[in-house]
Inverse folding.
């Protein structure tokens, strides 16, 4: 919303306040306009004079021929006139002060917003996460269910059964907790990724003795490292919400909401339950987020360079939305495949000891060996199909939303 739009709203509110407070220099019921103090005072004087003169009879100099109530009335008239003049000046002063405060406030907010890249990157990533995750919520529900309990039904069969048993709301169970988790997760991921890249560029300039504004290109491995650490930091910050989301998805009727799920996990297995499966999550996040960012950005930069060379004027060309969507989908599929076994282990560890589920595994490695021994190595890839089906469009939507938000917020990347 533009600054002029805010000012128009505030001006309208101030005028309405003035109209309600006192109708000055106008007929009753008419909306007054904001005028100078001298003009308002003159109108007040004339109105008082007309009220105090019998039959509105005046001399040529404006003095009443027959004042109402005699000399005392004239004295009262003078006092009322002075009072109204004072009130008019005060009202004009209040309005001027409000307008000055409004301008100063808007200027300070805009200055802070222009210089605060942290808030803008966090906002861009959070919006991208919420939009993408909500769009693929039904597929994620199916993927989570298959990873936890197994099953060989087709994706269509799972979706049909879910709709028949729980209706439309079944497609979005746990999505509230998911969005609460994914908003800060994606926000921190994108922000930390940009920060790590910026630090790498600065380090390379310093180590090579280059100027501060020299162009530096990051290679794919450097982008993978930056993305990997960004993913680990983001996941560690919001992991308890991931546990709650899994509980709400697997046992939708048990908990009344997000707060009840938090309390339920703590009451059943203690505070440590909120961090069950954190180990495999952090291990998985490095290749997952690192591969995703590396593939997307490396491919994006390469294609933009090709399009720029092919353009008539040679200027830089923004990536078309359809290509950005495709690259995001490719990056998401590769990332999901590389980290899926650890994702299965994480889900299994999260539900241990809750809702009557037995505690079968001591740690990440014990869970991996136990699953492979009991169910075969293929069990580590259960739910990969629905997970990829959810990840492919979800990651694509996340990246095109992020690119849109970057353009909207005037953000640039290295």
């Amino acid at each position: 919303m533009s600054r002029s739009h805010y000012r128009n709203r505030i001006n309208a509110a101030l005028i309405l306040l003035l109209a309600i407070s006192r109708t000055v220099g106008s007929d009753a019921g008419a909306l007054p306009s904001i005028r100078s103090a001298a003009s308002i005072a003159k109108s007040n004087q004339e109105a008082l004079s007309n009220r105090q003169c019998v039959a509105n009879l005046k001399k040529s100099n404006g003095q009443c021929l027959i004042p109402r109530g005699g000399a005392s009335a004239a004295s009262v008239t003078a006092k009322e006139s002075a009072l109204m003049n004072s009130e008019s000046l005060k009202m004009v002063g209040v309005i001027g002060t409000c307008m000055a405060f409004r301008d100063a406030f808007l200027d300070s907010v805009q200055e802070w917003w222009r210089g605060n890249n942290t808030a803008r990157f966090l906002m861009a990533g959070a919006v991208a996460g919420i939009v993408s995750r909500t769009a693929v919520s039904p597929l994620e529900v199916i993927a989570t269910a298959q990873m936890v309990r197994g099953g060989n039904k087709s994706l269509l069969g799972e979706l049909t059964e879910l709709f028949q048993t729980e209706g439309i709301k079944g497609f979005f169970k746990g999505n509230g907790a998911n969005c609460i988790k994914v908003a800060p997760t994606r926000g921190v991921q994108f922000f930390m990724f940009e920060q790590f890249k910026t630090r790498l560029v600065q380090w390379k300039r310093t180590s090579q003795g280059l100027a501060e504004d020299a162009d530096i290109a990051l290679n794919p491995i450097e982008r993978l490292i930056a993305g990997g650490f960004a993913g680990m930091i983001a996941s560690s910050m919001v992991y308890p919400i991931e546990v709650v989301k899994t509980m709400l998805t697997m046992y939708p009727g048990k908990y009344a909401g997000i707060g009840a799920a938090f309390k339920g996990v703590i009451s059943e297995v203690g505070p440590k339950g909120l961090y069950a499966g954190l180990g495999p999550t952090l291990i998985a996040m490095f290749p997952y987020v690192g591969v995703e960012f590396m593939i997307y950005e490396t491919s994006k930069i390469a294609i933009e360079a090709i399009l720029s060379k092919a353009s008539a004027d040679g200027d830089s060309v923004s990536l078309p939305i359809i290509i950005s969507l495709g690259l995001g989908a490719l990056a998401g599929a590769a990332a999901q495949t590389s980290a899926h076994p650890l994702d299965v282990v994480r889900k299994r560890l999260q539900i241990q000891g809750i809702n009557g589920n037995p505690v079968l595994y001591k740690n990440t490695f014990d869970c991996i060996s136990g699953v492979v021994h009991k169910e075969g190595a293929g069990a580590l890839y259960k739910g990969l199909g629905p997970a990829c089906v959810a990840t492919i469009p979800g990651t694509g939507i996340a990246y095109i939303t992020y690119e849109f938000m970057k353009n909207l917020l005037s953000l640039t990347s290295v």
About this structure: The CA atoms of residues 302 and 308 lie 10 Å apart. Confidence is low (pLDDT under 50) at residues 21-34, 69-76. The radius of gyration is 34 Å.
